[in-house]
Amino acid sequence: MRKIRLIARLDVKGTNLIKGVHLEGLRVIGSPNEYAQRYYQQGADELLYMDCVASLYGRNNLSHIVEKAAQNIFVPITVGGGIRSVDDATHLLRCGADKVAVNTAVVANPSLITDIARRFGSQCMVLSIEAKQIASERWEVYTDNGRERTGLDVIDWVKKGVSLGAGEILLTSVDREGTRRGFDIPLVKAVTQEVSVPVIASGGMGTTEHLIEVVQKGEADAVAMADILHYQRTTIGGIRRIAELSGIEVRRYEST
Amino acid sequence: MKAPKVTVIDYGVGNLLSVQRALEHCGAEVYTTNQSSAILAASRVVLPGVGAFANAMAELERLQLVDVIQKVAQKGIPLLGICLGMQLLLDESEEFGLTQGLGLIPGRVIPVPYSSITGQPQKIPHIGWNGLVLSPGSPNWQNTILEAVEPGESTYFVHSFMANPLDISHRVADCIYGGMPISAVIGQENLWGCQFHPEKSGEVGLKILRQFLA
Question: Cβ contacts (< 8 Å) between B17 and chain A: which residues?
Fold first, then answer.
């Protein structure tokens, strides 16, 4: 059985860790690196940083934050938001990121997926998808942090992205994001059934039960969580224990 | 106490920053270089690596580092290969046709099987945390870089190919993927290799690096 990865997601605007609902209405939580350090110590399997205004300004501003995180955080770090080119990816990887997550730029120019995968390996190229439900069992791809429609069908786009070299899918449900109502299970299931690469479910985790559901029913390989951790409703250690008791295989970790 | 010194070989393959930061965090003084004289004078050497085997060997050849690393091995300088850096220690790799490696540990690098022991298709690359288990070639981890690690502790893997040493005694630890053992740590006298990334494996990875520095 695969080990399910518990990923702390940090959405950043400027120098602040923020949290919104449906990727909008952003509230300031605090300093991203303080929270990142806390999640590392709690035993996060990975960290995911998202510059949530980057697409708007056309660039990712996380390099300093990532550089600082890489000083004392020794688990994989993924960075997304505003990555437009192989050079942008190179810059973030040099700052200490292990993977880049790209959405808006690869919708406009799908060959960028192949370019990044060829240069750094497909394990480095995370296809980030913001999905909104438009009909029963149908979802549309959105860009620019859930603001712009693309007309693309999520399932078609996932298949294309993987064939172009994406090594992992970050699947964010815009409908569920920040709502604490649980993951969009049919969306996650539809995607995991179509592709052989790992799928990270994101958006909607309000309780540990939601994680169990998205792993068991949605077959997610990893779970990104934000709200539930930021507002300290539980810890990664707490989530890990409950997941283990529910028969989900996770990394064994005794927090120090 | 004087800080242990480590030389990280920079041959343009992969991100050295994380390896360097993790070694520094463990108290080491880190030099990053591709100069043969500096590498031969090192007290400990780390050979990192991400990407394709053939590219990495071509770069090592271009920088005239193949002989240098072989001399490091002969001189008894502790050497740690990480991920692709571990695979390079073997004789050859099947990745994109057969390519010769450094030939320091007998064996070949082969693809991670596409299906599990029960015939189920499995995800390639093998990405994520996986537990370390004793290899049939190693009754325990005393006097190895895993001395402070307990069986079952997890480290972070990202790879599509795996080292397959001929001599079972060179296999220190395995991880299990799809029911099959994959070499996770190999060792032969002063040579060590980790298939996983100790610099990305949290506190367990740092324990392993500290042991290498000790």
Answer: 70, 94-96
Please list the alpha-helical segments (H only) found in A138-251.
154-164, 185-194, 208-216, 227-230, 236-245
Tokens of residue A75, six digits: 């688990």
Interchain pair B127, A168: CB under 8 A = yes
Domain ranges in chain B are 5-213
Give the list of residues 6+ apart from residue B200 with CB closer than 8 angstroms, or none: A74, A75, A76, A98, B18, B156
| Distance between A27 CA and the closest CA of chain B, angstroms | 30
Whether residue B50 lies within 8 A of chain A, CB to CB, comes out as yes
Query: Nearest Cβ partner of A251 from B123, B125, B154?
Result: B154
Instruction: Determine the Cα–Cα distance for residues B173 and B151; give it in Å rounded to an integer.
Output: 9
ipTM: 0.87
- B129 touches A at CB < 8 Å: yes
Q: Which residues of A touch B25 (CB under 8 A)?
A: 72, 74
Q: Give catalytic status of residue A140 as yes or no.
A: no
Q: How is residue B77 written in tokens?
A: 């300088």
E strand or H helix at B56, and its extent? helix B53-62
Residue B178: its chain A contacts at CB < 8 A?
Answer: none
Q: What is the pLDDT of residue A255?
A: 59
Q: What is the pTM of this model?
A: 0.91
Distance set, CA A193 to CA A200, A209, A221 (Å): 13, 22, 12
What CATH fold (topology level) applies to the domain A5-245?
TIM Barrel (3.20.20)
- Sort B40 into a burial class: Cβ within 10 Å, 0-12 / 13-18 / 19+: middle
**Do the beta carbons of residue B156 and residue A197 sit within 8 Å?**
no
Token pair in block for residue A145: 């942090």
pLDDT of residue B91: 98
- In this complex, is the C-beta atom of B152 within 8 Å of any C-beta atom belonging to chain A? yes
pLDDT lower than 50: segments of chain A: 256
Please give the helix or strand (H or E) that residue B29 lies within, else none: strand B29-33
User: Partners of B193 in the beta sheet?
Assistant: B81, B186
pLDDT tens track for A199-217: 999 999 999 999 999 999 9
Q: pLDDT tens digits for B167-189?
A: 999 999 999 999 999 999 999 99
Q: Domain B5-213: which topology? A: Rossmann fold (3.40.50)
Give residues with Cβ within 8 angstroms of B2, minimum separation 6: none
Average pLDDT estimate for B191-210: 97
